[in-house]
Amino acid sequence: MCGIVGAIAQRNIVPILLEGLQRLEYRGYDSAGLVVVSEGQLTRMRSTGRVAELSNISADIQGTIGIAHTRWATHGVPSERNAHPHMSRDLIAVVHNGIIENYEAIRTRLVAGGYEFASDTDTEVIAHLIHSHYVNGKTLLGATQAALTELVGAYAIGVIASDNPDQLICARRGSPLLMGIGIGENFFASDVSALLPVTNKVVYLEDGDVVEMGRQSYRIRDAAGEIVARPVQFSEISNESVQLGNYRHYMQKEIHEQPRAIADTLESVSNSHSIVPGIFGAEAAACFADIDSILILACGTSYHAGLVARYWLEEIAGIQCTVEIASEYRYRTSVANPRALVVVLSQSGETADTQAALSHAKSLGHVHTLAICNVPESALVRQSKLRFLTRAGPEIGVASTKAFTTQLVALFLLTLVLAKLRGRLTAEVEQLHLHSLRHLPAATQKVLDLEPQIAKLAEQFACKRHALFLGRGLHYPIALEGALKLKEISYIHAEAYPAGELKHGPLALVDKDMPVISVAPNDMLLEKLKSNLHEVRARGGELYVFADAGTHIREEEGVHIMQMPEHAGFLSPILHTIPLQLLAYYVALQKGTDVDKPRNLAKSVTVE
Ligand code: AGP
User: Fold this and answer.
1) Would you call 603 a catalytic residue per the annotation?
2) Hey, what CATH topology would domain 250-443 get?
3) What is the pLDDT of residue 226?
4) Residue of 175, 372, 398, 605 to mutate, ligand 1, most atoms within 8 A of C-beta
5) Averaged over 355-368, what is the pLDDT?
6) What atom of ligand 1 comes closest to residue 604's alpha carbon?
7) What whole-number distance in Å separates Cα of residue 484 and Cα of residue 461?
8) pLDDT digits (tens, 9 = 90+) for 133-161
9) What percent of the chain lies above the pLDDT cut of 70?
10) Over 430-466, what HEC string results?
11) Which residue from 355, 359, 376, 581 is spatially nearest to 490, judged by alpha carbons?
12) Residue pLDDT, tens place only, 162-177
């Protein structure tokens, strides 16, 4: 959840660290700090709040080696004393992303050995542990390796020592970390976007790797301490793709990128006359032939994508599908079906609960695994047998938008592949689906054109404290996603219900102050939905209806209609998501919240 960056160069690296932190800020933003070695001393600056505050106070610092951190608090409140880097006796400095589970026992031992703690964090034990080994004669590398053997939990760390201005150490287990290679300079970071201003030549580190970096060279050791060569890659992510451009917020930019993101995700099928299992990996055909059900594991927005897919998979492919919240599944004693395909859905590919759920599924005997993910080389991708990479591009806003719609595209492709293998898709129907998919980017663009109307509508929400979202069938998960978006960035309490469930309880909440937002596709459940909406209106509830063309729901007092294009059949949930994303965005603007970095949240939830 935190972001780390480090650099060793022949020039002043402070601007590189600050720029890197700015780009990692989406990972955590309650405090930030950096430390450099200059004239044999560690010079550290830390501040609560945003990286901008740190930049203001770091103007006079210079150094050619340093490490930096932007924090999402786990142990200890957001404060300057808990902000990283943490130091041990002015000799060792450490930045850390992850959680050290056994830090209390280590801390007690270190305190008994005379170490004084200056923070409430789990990270500080790493600094003191490395110090204890370093002053006992080990090299900085040896001291770091020795300390790491004592840690239980997840980490990506960067380490420097005041008496060693020519060496930077970094290491990872369970948290993402990559190296950047420059000319006469080297770097590390949690995410490639932090390094793009200085290099696109990168090495993704494996779990257990420890790296010694100098200015001209580096050496990677694996978990067994053996020197290893990891592939050097050139990141295809362009520097521009992580820039805000003319948009006001990343969320707005990412909402607008959806036609392009969907088109890119469909690239593997858009020029083809049929859909083949191979798009999910070389072993997909054999694997799909052996499965009899699907188990989807995910969190948050990704979980909602899984819920939509359940309707598709059961109706179109005729395959039984269960969708579970990863944080629950990982601790549940479930009955495993080894013939199920376990599908993990994740934008980041590093969500701790989803990773743990996948490991749990494997430990229960599941062998068929597929990751649908937006980040190549992420943990979930590496840990799954099959993979499908969505092509949304970097998603920076904490609220997930284009990752969700591209996940849906991937899940629809999975549905079609399985339907075909199971003899439930004629060539003719396959062509119809392919046609609709090819048209999807244009259809998405048409929905985006509703933006000015939705911005106007949002004005009516700024004073609301609660909201209810309704959907039915395939669109119930879209109501859930709309509610999540609204609460996440506007802090308005929002709940979503399948509309038929209203009269079983939630109708009691409806009065004139309760806006009820309904997704109204022109599908077979429309008439049922209309009856549910009458129930709301009869209790004085104010209705906001996103209605497909042809639904004949009339605008009248207390009923506001947002006119959507014609019904898009099975792909309708993708289109109906977009106005709800825009609604949340514009309500958040009205309320003046920090849209891209909502309070208490972070982009990648790499802790439990
Ligand atoms: C959505 O807007 C969220 N910020 C959050 O629910 C997110 O979808 C969830 O944390 C899962 O993340 P992942 O897709 O990266 O695994």
Assistant:
1) yes
2) Rossmann fold (3.40.50)
3) 96
4) 605
5) 96
6) 15
7) 15
8) 999 999 999 999 999 999 998 899 999 99
9) 100
10) HHHHHHHHHHHHHHHHHHHCCHHHHHHHHCCCCCCCE
11) 581
12) 999 999 999 999 888 9
Tell me how far the alpha carbon of residue 551 lies from the centroid of ligand 1, in angstroms. Answer: 33
Q: Let me know if the fold of 250-443 is the same as that of 451-591.
A: yes
Mutate to test the pocket of ligand 1, among 72, 175, 299 (most ligand atoms within 8 A of CB): 299
- Ligand 1 — pocket residues by CB below 6 A? 299-302, 346-348, 351, 354, 398-400, 488, 604-605
Separation of 606 CA from ligand 1 center, angstroms?
11
Classify domain 451-591 at the CATH superfamily level.
Glucose-6-phosphate isomerase like protein; domain 1 (3.40.50.10490)
Question: What's the CA-to-centroid distance between 400 and ligand 1, angstroms?
Answer: 6
Q: What is the pTM of this model?
A: 0.84
User: Closest ligand 1 atom, CA of 601?
Assistant: 4
Strands 201-204 and 233-234, by their bridges, are antiparallel
What is the dihedral angle through the alpha carbons of 386, 391, 397, 401, rounded to the nearest 10 degrees?
A: -90
- Going from N- to C-terminal start, the domains of the chain cover 3-242, 250-443, 451-591
Cβ count within 10 A of residue 16? 24
If you search the block for the tokens 């099928």, which residue do you land on?
A: 269
Q: Of 569, 487, 591, 465, which is closest to residue 523 (Cα–Cα)?
A: 569
Check residue 74 and give its pLDDT. Answer: 79
The model's confidence at residue 534, banded by pLDDT at 50, 70 and 90, is confident
Q: Of the candidates 481, 472, 537, 478, which has an alpha carbon nearest to the alpha carbon of residue 501?
A: 472
Binned at pLDDT 50, 70 and 90, residue 605 comes out as confident
Band the pLDDT of 345: cuts 50, 70, 90: very high
Longest pairwise C-alpha distance within the chain:
80
Tell me which of 327 and 59 has the higher pLDDT. Answer: 327
CB atoms under 10 Å from CB of 150, counted, come to: 15
Contact by Cβ (8 Å): 26, 2: no
Task: Yes or no: say if 477 and 411 are a contact pair by the CB < 8 Å rule.
Answer: no
Q: Residue 344 C-alpha to ligand 1 middle, in angstroms?
A: 12
State the closest ligand 1 atom to the C-alpha of 354, by its place in the atom list counted from 1.
16
| pLDDT tens digit sequence for 80-137 | 999 999 999 999 999 999 889 899 999 999 999 999 999 999 999 999 999 999 999 9
Amino acid residing at 532: N
Q: Buried b / exposed e across 484-507, counting CB within 10 Å, b at 16+?
A: bbbbbbbbbebebbbbbebeeebb
What is the predicted pLDDT for the residue at 531? Answer: 87
What is the C-alpha separation between 413 and 386, in angstroms, rounded? 14
pLDDT at position 377 is 76
Provide the mean pLDDT of the chain. 94
Active site residue 2: yes
Residue type, 408: L
Q: Could you say which of 2, 170, 287, 299 is catalytic? A: 2
Beta strands 515-520 and 542-547, pairing class: parallel
**Of the given ranges (52-56, 180-184, 510-514), which has the lowest mean pLDDT?**
510-514
The CATH homologous superfamily for domain 3-242 is Aminohydrolase, N-terminal nucleophile (Ntn) domain (3.60.20.10)
